[in-house]
Amino acid sequence: MKYQSTRGLEKGVSFKDVLFAGYSKDGGLYFPETVPKLSQEQLESWSKLSYPDLLSEILCLYIDPSELSREQIIDLATGSFSRFELPEVMRVAELKNDLRVSELFHGPTLAFKDLGLGVVARLLETFLSASGERCLIVVATSGDTGSAAIQAVRGLDNIDIVVLLPHGRCTEIQELQMTTCIDDNVHVFAADGNSDEIDVEVKSIFADTEFVKRHRVISSNSINWARVLSQMTHFFYGYFRACAKVGDVVEMVLPTGAAGNITAGCVAARMGLPVRLVAAVNTNDIVYRSLSSGDFSKADEVVVSLAPAMDIQVPYNMERLMLLFSGHNTELVKAMMTEFEANGRVQIDAQVLKEMQKVIVDAQVVPDDAISSTLTRCWEENQYTLCPHTATAAHYHYCHVRPDGPRRLCVATAGPDKFPGALQGAGVPFQPCERIRQLHSMPTRSEPMERGQDWKAMLRQKIEAVSAVREAGGR
After folding, report:
1. Closest CA to 166 of 300, 284, 309
2. Are the C-beta atoms of residues 29 and 320 closer than 8 Å to each other?
3. Quick one: pLDDT at residue 349?
4. I need a surface site. Which of 193, 252, 340, 405 has the fewest CB within 10 A?
5. Alpha-helical segments (H) within 208-329
6. What is the pLDDT of residue 474?
7. Residues 6+ apart with CB under 8 A from 317
């Protein structure tokens, strides 16, 4: 298994090099040169596996054995979920009106990002321990990725992490989950900007390939293929628990922001998993417009919503979807992305869109009032609490009940405890769990990034300072 850039400059890249990279050298993203196909017999055998064992099987298909042995992969998969509340890692809740909820939020930060980032951290540790090297993770977050990435690597000797968060544009709980981590290897910037604005600063760092190489800078958000790869596991695991029998189609409805999760689902479908996908988005509707009409264009501004992790206008994983559904036509992807980056808009190729719509069969915009009413309805009918992101998926289900259609699974991307304001506004009784209550009494640490300051320079200086400490034999 080798990897290529979505824009065609690089081919034959190893998994390790992809893992320790951010954007590819041509500004694109890394993606497998081929997608393995599973037989019905393989799907049947996988249906009986635990979550860590299923992860092992998937990783073994995408990591060449010359890089990591099967034994190494099994070991890291087994240890990736030690801090999850559920021994089974995730579960499916069966509710009234045929609402099934795939609970992905039982990790240390109560978000589905824990599923992928715990694995990424173990992969990094495995390679770094073998080489004696160190690395520095730089990540921009809209809310959940930053805290999950920090929890995955905090306190590790061979990894430092720098996180940029949109101050005041994620929830107080999300921000506290990041700023209360005061380990020596954790460095947090609270920026006076939205998630797309801080993404620009991080992408500018990765565009300087010499700087990235010198300071061993990598990414752990869904720019990094390893995270998308790891997240494929929950599609298989959820499918096997929702289907009546292996081979039946299951429809999965996904709260969608940067499109990393739905990309993982599309790859799983290409591997042969019998799923069709639906993208549920908030008022920031670029993914909806892209999937429904091919209009891949940024709006004038990012709108703050009740589902802040989805407050995004540049869903960068759409580039991977373009490659997958174009038959790996890197020239076409490069042309579309070049136009998008120059003009803030591009029309997705008609044939690519047609192929996309065979897997992502629908999309829906769910505004704040619908999120709130869905939180209320689910509680009144089931005494079950959704998070506002998951409510976008549940709202789609309530609007499209099809008794004769395939079974449907709504993906719950975060625990409700992280969003007290949305719950209170919907009249849903709320009692935070102990780990959330403790955050309010813990010391915090972060550095402000004010408007008018040179954010790129500040970020570079932080990276250089952290590297200097490492080279001097300190943290």
Report:
1. 309
2. yes
3. 98
4. 405
5. 209-215, 225-242, 260-271, 286-293, 318-325
6. 62
7. 29, 222, 228, 258, 259, 260, 262, 263
> What one-letter code names the amino acid at 34?
T
Report pLDDT for 6.
98
**What pLDDT shows up at residue 376?**
98
Cα 63 from Cα 276, distance rounded (Å): 26
Q: What is the DSSP letter of 194?
A: -
Collapsed DSSP state (helix, strand, coil) of residue 265: helix
Catalytic residue positions?
113
pLDDT of res. 433: 86
Give, as one character, the DSSP assignment of residue 305: -
- In 3D space, the residue among 8, 51, 58, 65 whose CA is nearest the CA of residue 33 turns out to be 8
Q: Are 18 and 30 in contact (CB under 8 A)?
A: yes
pTM: 0.93
pLDDT of residue 475: 53
Q: Report the SS3 class of residue 357.
A: helix
Instruction: Tell me how far CA of residue 41 lies from CA of 48, 59, 60, 272, in angstroms.
Output: 12, 19, 17, 11
Q: How far apart are alpha carbons 228 and 235 in whole angstroms?
A: 11
**Hey, what amino acid is at 461?**
Q
CB atoms within 10 A of CB 287: 28
Query: Could you report how far apart the first and last alpha carbons of the chain are, in Å?
Result: 35
Query: Do residues 69 and 95 make contact, with C-beta atoms less than 8 angstroms apart?
Result: no
Beta strands 100-103 and 407-412: pairing type?
A: parallel
- Dist CA 196 CA 421 (whole Å): 23
> What are 193-245's pLDDT values in tens digits?
988 899 889 989 988 989 999 999 998 878 899 999 999 999 999 999 999 99
Cβ atoms of 253 and 396 closer than 8 Å = yes
> 52: number of CA atoms within 13 Å, CB side?
18
| Other CB atoms within 10 Å distance of the CB of residue 299 | 13
Q: Which residues of the chain have pLDDT under 50?
A: none
Whether 126 and 241 have beta carbons less than 8 Å apart is answered as no
Going by C-beta distance under 8 Å and a sequence separation of 6 or more, which residues neighbour residue 312?
A: 142, 195, 196, 257, 258, 284, 286, 302
Alpha-carbon distance of 316 to 311, in angstroms, equals 13
Q: Whole-angstrom Cα distance, residue 217 to residue 247?
A: 42
What b/e string do you get for 317-347 counting C-beta neighbours within 10 Å, with b at 16 or more? Answer: bbbbbbbbbbebbbebbbebbeebeeeeebe
Which run of H or of E encompasses 472?
none
